Amino acid sequence: MSDELVQFVIGPTPYSSWWLWLAVLLLFILIVWYASVFVWTMPGRRIGGLPVIGAARSELVKRRSARAVHAVGERYRAGELAAAPAAAAVSRELRAFLRAATGARAEYMQVDAIANSELAPAAPVLKALIDAQFNADSIVDVGSASDSAEELIHTWS
């Protein structure tokens, strides 16, 4: 073999250093993703203890629930919903908010059980909504009940 061809026989070329930095960046993104999924799916009571994240999640839950209740109230006032379906929708949203805010299984609780628990401020609103939903002769105004539910959500601590 001639000496001219020996110059082409070499070891593997070293990898570029930007591959290392890309791997570190992707690993960091993966860790942040898993941590955020873990934190945002924690139950409301446990996440409330985290200072910044708990307050941010609480505000997001309040804002989303209040917006949903307001939308149902507006649909009722516009005549798109009758009283019973509107009361059912507001009650469902309020109970979902109470579950997200406190961790108590408010969707499955009777109004008397709610009145005797930490959710007691919501009992009068839920009682009015249940009356409007199931009593055909009810004098409860669903529009004002939805306003009360929205106010309760905004003032919940």
Gyration radius (Cα, Å) is 28 Å
Number of strands: 0
Q: Tell me, briefly, the overall form.
A: elongated
Order of helices and strands: HHHHHHH
Helix share, percent = 55-70%
Instruction: Sketch the major β-sheet.
Output: none
End-to-end span in angstroms? 85 Å
How many structural domains?
1
Low-confidence stretches are none
Structural class computed from helices and strand pairing: mainly alpha
| Number of continuous helical runs | 7
Q: Report the β-strand fraction as a percent range.
A: under 5%
Task: Quote the average pLDDT.
Answer: 88
Task: Write structural notes for this entry.
By secondary structure, this protein is an all-alpha fold. The chain has one domain (44-155). The protein is 68% helix and 0% strand. It starts with 16 loop residues before the first helix and ends with a helix. The model has no long low-confidence stretch (mean pLDDT 88).
What's the helix and strand layout?
Layout: H1 17-40, H2 44-47, H3 51-77, H4 83-102, H5 111-115, H6 123-134, H7 142-155
Give the key terms.
mainly alpha
Concise summary:
This protein is about 70% helix and about 0% strand. It is mainly α. The model has no long low-confidence stretch (mean pLDDT about 90).
